[in-house]
Structure formats: C-alpha cells, structure tokens
Give the backbone structure.
Amino acid sequence: MRIDGNFVLKGNIGFSREDKTLCCMPDSYVVCAEGICMGVFAEVPEKYRSFPLIDCGDDLVIPGMTDLHLHAPQYTFRGLGMDLELLDWLQTHTFPEEAKYQDLEYAKKAYRMFVEDLKRSFTTRACIFATLHKEATLELMDQLEESGLITCVGKVNMDRNGGEGLCEEHAAASLEETKEWLARVSEKNYRRTMAILTPRFIPCCSDELMRGLSGLQKKHGLKVQSHLSENPSEVAWVKELVQGADSYAGAYDLFCMLGTKEYPAVMAHCVYCSDEEMDLMRRRGVYVAHCPESNLNLSSGIAPVRKYLELGIDVGIGTDVAGGAGLSMAKAVSFAIQCSKMYWRLVDKEAKPLTFAEVFYLATLGGGSYFGKTGSFLEGYAFDAVVVSDEAVKSMRSLAVEERLERMIYEEKGCRIVRKFVDGKECF
C-alpha cells in the first residue's frame, strides 16, 4: 500500500541545516503532515502518534536530492565519446542522437528508460533539457508527471549551429513552436511538471531568437536554463557571435535572459566566469549548476565553487547526463568534493576544498531551494525523502550515521534505494 500525506518514518536520519551543517540523528523519527515535514524527533510527538509508522529499521533516511542540470535525450549514449572535448562531442554524439527524437516512437522508448531509472535514483527533483521537438518534449513531460517526481522540463531552442537534422528553420519558427508547446503544457495542467525556457546555449541561438525568448519569459513569468562558460573554445566563440556583450554572462544579460531574483535562471558549468560575471550573476540571482563529472569527462575544467559560495551565489549539483556518465547524484557529490580538492591544490591555494557536509547540502537543500523550501527535514519543508539500505557494504567498524552517509556517497554500488517519497507521496 502506498503511503500518502500523513506518516512517520523511523530510521537513521541525516539532513542539512540552512547553515550548511549536517545533522545526523540515529534511530529517530521524521514526521510528514499533508506533504510537509514537521521535523525530526527522538520520540514521536503526541499529536502525530496516530499517523502510520514506517519502520525503516537500520536504513538511512535522507532528503531527496535535486539534479539541477541533465539532458534526458542523451541518456541513450551515456558513457560514450569521452575522449572528445565539448564542441566536438556535441557534433559527433549529441546532435545526431537528439535529431532522432523527431521520431515520436523512438522518443517514447528512450524516455521510458530514462524516467524509470531517474525514478529509482537519489533524485526527487530535477531541471531537465529535452530536445527541440515539441511532441517528444510533451511525451517526456507526460512520463515524468506519471513518475511522481517534480521537474522543470524545457523544449530546447536552437536556430543555428545544430548540424543536420537538429536546427530550427529560423528564430520565428523556433518561437512559434515554443509558444505552441507552452499552450499545450497549459492545457495539460500538470501538477508536478513545469515548463522552463531552454535556449541550448548562445552558439546555437541567434540574437533574434534570444530577444524573442526574453519576451516569452516576461509574458509568462518563466524560469530559464542554459549553459554558461563550460569550455574555453565555447567562451571564445561567444565573443565572436555577440559583439555587443562584454562577456558570456553579459551576452545572456544583454537579452535579459540571465534571470531575476523572482525567476532565477539555472546556468550549468560556469567554469570560466570572471569576477565581473560572478558579480552580475549574484545580482541577477543565478543558480549555478555545478557538473563536476561532465567537466572532467569533456576536459572542460574545474569550476570555482568555493568562490561562488563565498559571494553568496546559489549553487546546486548536476549530473549533466550524458557529459556525466550516469544519473547518480551520489557520484556527482563525490566528484564535486574531489574537484574542489584539485582546484585548491592546483589552481587557487586560497580556495579551501569543499567538505562532505557542504556538498551534501548543495545536492539537497542548496539545489532544492530552486524549487522552494525543499531538500531538508527542517520544519516547513516539502517532504522529499529517500530510504537507503547500506547493509551490503561490509565493514569491521561500527559507524556513526554521518560516517555511513559519507560511505554511501563514495561506495554507492553497495547501497540500495528501497523507498522514495516526493511531496509526501510515495513513489515506490
């Protein structure tokens, strides 16, 4: 029987506080009332004792993670082509694969694989790129709505430099398809799946298209997701394409597509942003989607995450499938920690490495905040939870909850997700 709305989970509970510290409570209770977390307790408060109790035994109970950046149509070729850098990889693998989503039957089958695996992962919320194909994007949104996950999904816009079979005819055509897509989304009245404007990145979007998307953003009050400063060649290319901008971030801002505090944009990667760009991003309320595995696989670089955090810029973690080789947010967390160590060792001795507690925060509460009060077991937060069994990870040590959480991240293959809840509703 699926649990919905009002219940109590008992287990070994770990979650982030708003100050980025980690709170771990063994053999404790977390309460869900009408889909909202009421807090974590050593004993169940009297007023909640009538709620159904789910005893998770010795399992770990953590908030669901938010994957702030990934590409659903790229799941079919995850783990391939990693000898290439970004621009060659896009032309060789990404664009030819995404062109196949013109075929709706292909899209249905491919997205079914993706959604089922995402449902079984640590992820409870995500910002997702589809392709430029309207019908295929709606198919993805239908499947995600059915999954119980909460997502932002974007029909990709690109009217230049997409290669054969993956380029909209011109800006007007791209905008018209986007308008029709938004109208269809409105008709479907999704409860868990939201539209997000998705210019692929500036090299694939003409000035006319960016201006048109800005108009749609203002008209409909939509959020935006895109890519920013991932690769040195990409950065140089943008300088050539947008003559009126003083930087890559400035190019987005020139078209009013860097977001606002009310409708923040998610910008993936942000490896090579200047101090001036960072200040602009802070003022606009940009969320940085840190994609460490992808940045390594495609030889892009190491993002200065510590600097973003010190400046007060919001940061979350993204798997960036298929630049990242899979949907594992645990793996993304471990890569984020490791990359920060190398950034400190090789690039900037003043940028102290990120701790496990800090990156666990980024994967849960940090990225989750893009969706509101999500990603923690603090009172008043949406109840997203993942129950994890680590009994297959053998050890001679008796470990504290915090130690088991750290081991879960680095030794994920020995762990099994046994239950998942989103907004207080059980997914499986």
Observations:
- The radius of gyration is 21 Å.
- The CA atoms of residues 124 and 192 lie 11 Å apart.
